[in-house]
Amino acid sequence: MRGWRTLSLQARQMLAASVALVAFLGLTGYALDRAFVQTAQNALRERLANLANAYIQESEFDRTGGFISPEIPPDTRLLSPGSGLYANVRGEGLSWDSASTLGRSLPPVELLKQNERRFEGPLRIVDARGLENTVYAYSIGVVWESPVGDLPITLSVFEDAGQIQDQVNVFRRALWGYLVMAALLLVLVQILVLRWSLLPLRDVERELSRVRQGRSQRLSGRHPRELESITESINSLIESERSHLERSRNTLSDLAHSLKTPLAVLRSRLDADASHEELRAEVGAQVQRMNEIVSYQLSRAARSGHALYSAPLEIEPRAEEIVAGLEKVYASKGVFCEFEIDPAARFHGELGDLQELMGNLVENAFKWARKRVLLTVTVEPAPDNRRPGVSFVVDDDGPGIPPEQVERLLQRGVRGDERVQGHGIGLSIVQDIVAAYRGELTVSKAPELGGARFAVRFPPAY
Where are the transmembrane segments (predicted)? Predict the structure, then answer.
């Protein structure tokens, strides 16, 4: 069973197609063979029927009721013993056999009624040497008007079955010979067709090999429609792993760079022969700073990664939790947040990313809003079998953001107003999450509330 499961796609298709081909050609050969045998038997029947009719028309009876056969029969083989063609006449008190029956023991004939006809065979006969043979028989019942009255007789014509069997054998040899040749040709064509049809899979395999060897960055987009979903998913996995590795390297680099300053400060204090109390205070401050740096970098690394095929998360209950908490924090401002969330909206990613995304967008709106914030989440339908997309739009009635300031404010550590509490990294975190999920972030003016509008769109994906 294990061997069957490990068969290649080409082997599976070849095996299935070969079984179907053998079954089809076998049934076709059997049907043609039976059709030829039936046709040969029908032809023999017609030939024997014509011979029997001709024999009756050319025969007569004498005054005593004796049967007189024609001097020259319809077929001269009736005059040659053992020729394979035989005839006899049977009636009450009447028995006649053709010269060809000499040394042959023909099967008994049942007397037939007038105009009754019968075709039988193959029937067994025995020759003078005791050898068995088979014949086909055609019999016809006739009432003959003779000088002594009406005589019911049955005339039978026999032909050796070997002749029709020889024809069948010749046909079968030709038939199965041609079918075998056709099978070999079809198998060859089938192999070529399978190799051609599986060529795109071999191309994918070669491209994956180049990716593993580092000679290529991703799979090409030149593949049949049926493979597009697979190649796109593989490319997504490749890019996801590459981005994860890049983010890990960046995080370690940022962590190392951030720790340089506290360590340098400690080193300088040691070199300056600071007092015990000063050194103790400095060590405590720098250790606290390094602890904050490590905590921040770890949380950032956790936020930056995501599972490519995560289970879909409901958005509405998470949005309610975030907004409820922010309304308590900003209760002194009296900011009110409204919802317009599609119940069918789902986020295909990690819960932490969803919370960071909505939390930073909505908190930024709460900081700058005067009284109103509007959160809108809509579903973007997907064609074919793609995963539907989702859009997040957060509007506020604050002062808004000038278009020329958008790029600067999205940079890490930059704040729109130094008097407003914050660290200037919230929107940068949003950008990192959007980039990780291959989404789009746009900043514009809110058409209804008049403040800023932050729109995040995650398009449909495979």
Answer: 175-198
> Which of 409, 454, 444, 447 has its CA nearest to residue 428?
409
Cα–Cα distance, 358 to 318 (Å, whole number): 9
224, 204 in Cβ contact below 8 A? Answer: no
3-class secondary structure per residue, the chain: CHHHHCCCHHHHHHHHHHHHHHHHHHHHHHHHHHHHHHHHHHHHHHHHHHHHHHHHHHCEECCCCCEECCCCCCCHHHHCCCCCEEEEEEECCEEEECHHHCCEECCCCCCCCCCCEEEEEEEEEEECCCCEEEEEEEEEEEEEEECCEEEEEEEEEEEEHHHHHHHHHHHHHHHHHHHHHHHHHHHHHHHHHHHHHCHHHHHHHHHHHHHHCCCCCCCCCCCCHHHHHHHHHHHHHHHHHHHHHHHHHHHHHHHHHHHHHHHHHHHHHHHCCCCHHHHHHHHHHHHHHHHHHHHHHHHHHHHHCCCCCCCEEECHHHHHHHHHHHHHHCCCCCCEEEEEECCCCEEECCHHHHHHHHHHHHHHHHHHCCCEEEEEEEEECCCCCCECEEEEEEEECCCCCCHHHHHHHCCCCCCCCCCCCCCCCHHHHHHHHHHHCCCEEEEEECCCCCCEEEEEEECCEC
Cβ atoms < 10 Å from Cβ of 97: 16
CB 99 within 8 A of CB 77: no
Return the CATH class of domain 312-458. alpha beta
Which of the residue ranges 41-45, 213-217, 250-254, 341-345 would you say has the lowest mean pLDDT? 250-254
- Domain locations in the chain as residue ranges: 1-197, 225-304, 312-458
Average model confidence (pLDDT) across the chain: 80
Structure tokens at 298: 């770890």
pLDDT tens, residue by residue, 192-219: 888 888 788 788 778 888 877 777 777 7
Beta-carbon contacts of residue 301 (< 8 Å; ≥ 6 apart): 247, 248, 251
pLDDT score recorded for residue 11: 77
pTM of the model: 0.48
pLDDT tops 90 at residue 359: no
Name residues whose C-beta falls within 8 Å of residue 104's C-beta, 6 or more positions apart in sequence: 81, 82, 86, 125, 126, 127, 128
Q: How sure is the predictor about 453, in pLDDT bands with cuts at 50, 70 and 90?
A: very high
